[in-house]
Structure formats: C-alpha cells, structure tokens
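Lab notes, practical 5.
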Amino acid sequence: MKRFLLVDDDAIFNFLHTEVIKTVDSSAQIDLFNSSTEGLEFLKEALEGHREMPHFLFLDIRMPEMDGFEFLDELMHYPVEKFKDIRIYVLSSSLAERDKEKSLSYPIVTGFIEKTLTIEKLKGIIETYPS
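Output from the prediction step:
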C-alpha cells in the first residue's frame, strides 16, 4: 500500500487528485491538507518517527498561509537522508520557468508537475518508486 500526502489549498484540485490516486491505486492511503502549515506539521511528525512516512508528497506552490517554497525551506532543516523513501513533487498551475527551476533546485524535490495530476502522470510516477 502506497501512502500519499497532498498539500494544496484548492479543494477542487484536492478532490480531483484524490480521485486520480484512487483510480490508479485503490488501496492507497491518502492524507490531505488544505492548510500548508498543518501539512507541514504532519510531515514533520513523520520525519521525526511519530507516524508513517508517506511515499509521495504532492505540494502546491501558491498557498495563503505558507507557500510551497517556504514549506520546502522548512523541510531543509532536516538531513537530506531523511527523504530517501519519499518522492516529493511540486504540483502547480504556475507556468513560470523560474518556479520550476526553483522547485528543482531543492535536493529533496523529485520533480515538477503542471496541474492537473492525471492517471498517466501518476502511473509513471508510481512506476519509478522501488517496490
């Protein structure tokens, strides 16, 4: 069973992305946060061993409380080795090349995906994860 963490303030995208995940992997466990600060606290608890680490994190950039870059900056306080079993994807509607470049400059970020997450994109992502 794969574990997914979605952090996005947009309820419609959260619904769509949850449905895509369930379609691709009906046994997936999905933790969903509309609040970036609550999503960060959840992930910090996993990094500190208080809950299971998700296999995948899909993170939006533009959020009101804390944007995706601030979220990633907070994660960079942890050793990079802590992220060996999680694939972090920035999932954004931004078409700005600078956002993509900045996202990929973080050593813990696996990739940048333009919204919307599709079944085909997700299948490709899951296939790259070691069994």
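Observations recorded by the TA: The radius of gyration is 13 Å. The chain has a mean pLDDT of 96.
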